[in-house]
Structures are given as structure tokens and as C-alpha cells.
Amino acid sequence: METQSARIIVLGAGAWGTTFAQVLADVGNYVTLWARDERTAGAINEFHTSKYLPGVVLPRKVSATTTVEPLLSEADGIVVALPSDALQEALPKFLGLITEDQEVISLTKGLFHGQFTSQIIAEAWDRPRDTITVISGPNLANEIIARQPAATVVACPQAERAKRVGKWCDAGYFRPYYSVDSLGCEVAGVVKNVIALAVGAAAGMGLGKNTSSTLITRGLAEMTRLGLALGANGETFLGLAGIGDLSTTCTSELSRNYSFGFNIGRGLTVPQALAASKGPCEGVKSCQSVLELANQAGVEMPITESVVDVIKHGHTAAQMGERLLGRARKRDGVSIELV
Ligand SMILES: NC(=O)C1=CN([C@@H]2O[C@H](COP(=O)(O)OP(=O)(O)OC[C@H]3O[C@@H](n4cnc5c(N)ncnc54)[C@H](O)[C@@H]3O)[C@@H](O)[C@H]2O)C=CC1
Ligand SMILES: O=C(CO)COP(=O)(O)O
């Protein structure tokens, strides 16, 4: 039987990677963060601080390095916590250093050039996609670093892998639920960012809770339709990785996607809103790819379409609202036949 403590490498020493490293350390694992620059690694090793998490003192068990290659073969698990647009540059250098019996865990909620994170990792490291575990849920780093209670979904088509990884991050305040539907978790994690842009924009325009609840509910319908069309399990979208994460991201000023949308709603341009962001806005990067995926699958995603118009075609938040309200009347619900 495996002992409780595992050796885990976290690739990406930003807000979520560092927070997840603390979760893993709290459970008793040996955790090393791979940081891109010496300054970030030095701050973690010498002062137990991170510029991504102001005011936080990290556990001494969390260390960092800029040279992770020699540690990879000894690790039980490798966590990917990089922004989606960094994966294709960062991952290939580790090809051949990670074997199939090691657990690979994705925290990245992105769709880059039409590929979900697990697909990019699988290709970069030449391993089957169904060996990759996805962790996704209502998990704002700034709350979890303060050890506020939250739950998450640990999903892998190979259920035993999800169980193994779930034990590593079962910190009490951070509570794993298991699933085999990693695809559904990835779809939900990507689409909720796009919907949060729209909800944030509505709030930035001064619109109230009826508008945001309308967008969240119809956003859930969009997410579910796309997931079903791609072969995900519909239940996932009613769980923590679906409505759970959607409601967190669409209602918190801590969310970079919601805040980006808010700034668009109050009149900032896309470049201005990006410059004001406190971290990656995955919804900005993924919205076009989500729409293309939906078109290929024959799924209608009007909120996503209106977000693409804002991000790519210079539409204002007000035009986005007019467009959504001007659509033909529909039946309530999420069924793909009823779009
Ligand atoms: N912050 C949060 O609350 C949560 C974030 N996520 C997801 O986690 C992913 C990462 O987000 P954050 O940690 O918040 O971003 P962040 O901006 O705080 O950290 C990203 C880290 O990746 C590093 N990095 C960027 N490009 C790199 C490259 N080419 N090579 C090596 N390192 C590179 C940066 O230096 C930084 O340390 C995103 O996909 C996000 O959607 C998921 C759940 C919660
Ligand atoms: O995924 C997240 C919370 O679960 C973080 O959302 P943002 O990337 O919008 O900050």
C-alpha cells in the first residue's frame, strides 16, 4: 500500500500552482514548485512568500526550483498549473522524463488552438489522454490559500488514478469529489470563464442580479449543450466543476475573467482591460476556440458568440446586450435538440 506522503512537482509557481502546493503540503506531501525565474523561487525558498499571493506566508514544506528536470523521475505526481498559452512552449522540454505510472494532473482551465489542456499534455508527453487527471471546481486561489473551505472535482477516466490524486489533496478544508468525466470538467472549466466575461460586463454596465442570474443560467445551458455534444456526462455540469465553478467565477471580484468583463462593461477597451487584469484571463484566450468547437459540433452558444464579438470584433458591452435580447424566443432548458 502506498504511504500517505507523495513527492509532487508543481509546474507553474503562480497563484493557483502555489496555492495548490500549499494544499498538498498541508496533507503531508513533499512538494516542489517549478518557477520560471530565480526571483520567484528565491522568494519562496528564503522568505516563504510569493508576489502572486500578497501577504501570505507559505509553509516551509513548500520549496521551489528553476531546475526541475532532475526531480521529475523521482516524483509520484506532476501537476501542471501554467496558463494555457504557456503549455506548448513549456511542456515539450520534459518529454521522456515522465513515465505513464506517474500521475499527471492538470489545473489549467484553458482551450488553446482548439485543444483542451489534457490533450496538449498528452501530446507533449506522449501519453494517453485518459491517464491525465483534471482538477476543477469553485477554487479561487485567494480563498483557498487562506484555507477557507471549498470542494473540487478530481476527475480521471481511470478511476484509480483519481482516487490516488484525491488522497494527496484531501486537506480537510479542500475536499475532493471523484469523477471519471475529465472531459466534462474541462469543458465546464473553459466555458465558465467565457460566461463570466459576459456576467462581469453586465455588472460593469450597472445591471443587477436578474441580468446576471439570466446569463449564468443560460450560460449553464450553453456549457451543458457543448459538453453533451462532445461526449461529456450531463451530471458534471450540475456539479462542482459545472454550476459550482460557474457561480463562483461569475460572482466574485477575485475572478480575473469576471473583473475583465466588468472593466469592459464600464467602458474600457480590450487592451486596457487586459492591462488592468491581475492574472491570465483564460476566457479572452479561449472564447474564439470555444465558438469554433461549438460550430463544429452543431451547438448554438449565443452568449459565447457575443463575447467573441466583444473580444475580436470591437463590439461594446451594450451591443452585446442588444444582440442577446434580440434573439428569437426559445424554450427553457438545456436539451441540444431544443436550441
Ligand atoms: N488563480 C486561480 O484562482 C485559479 C486558476 N486556475 C487556472 O490555473 C492556470 C494558471 O493560473 P494562475 O496560477 O492564476 O496564473 P498566474 O499568472 O498567477 O501564474 C502563472 C505562472 O506560470 C508561469 N509561466 C507563464 N508562462 C510560462 C512559461 N512559458 N514557462 C514557465 N512558466 C510560465 C508564470 O511565471 C506564473 O508563475 C490558469 O489556466 C487558470 O485558469 C484554476 C483554478 C483557480
Ligand atoms: O477558476 C477559477 C476559480 O475556480 C479562477 O477564475 P479566474 O481565472 O477568472 O480568476
Can you describe this structure?
By secondary structure, the chain is α/β, with parallel strands linked by helices. The chain folds into 2 domains: 7-180, 3-Layer(aba) Sandwich (Rossmann fold), CATH 3.40.50.720; 184-338, N-(1-d-carboxylethyl)-l-norvaline Dehydrogenase, domain 2. The chain is 49% helix and 13% strand. The chain has helices at 15-27, 38-47, 69-72, 87-90, 117-125, 141-144, 159-168, 182-204, 209-230, 240-251, 256-265, 270-276, 282-297, 302-313, 317-325, and strands at residues 7-11, 30-34, 62-65, 77-80, 103-106, 111-112, 115-116, 132-136, 150-155, 174-179. An 8-stranded mixed β-sheet has the order 3-2-1-4-5-8-9-10, sandwiched between helices. A hairpin with a 2-residue loop joins strand 6 (111-112) and strand 7 (115-116). Helix 8 runs parallel beside helix 10, helix 8 (182-204) runs parallel beside helix 11 and helix 13 crosses helix 14. The chain is globular. The mean pLDDT is 96. The structure holds 1,4-dihydronicotinamide adenine dinucleotide and 1,3-dihydroxyacetonephosphate. 1,3-dihydroxyacetonephosphate binds at residues 109, 138-140, 193, 196, 245, 248-249, 255-257, 282.
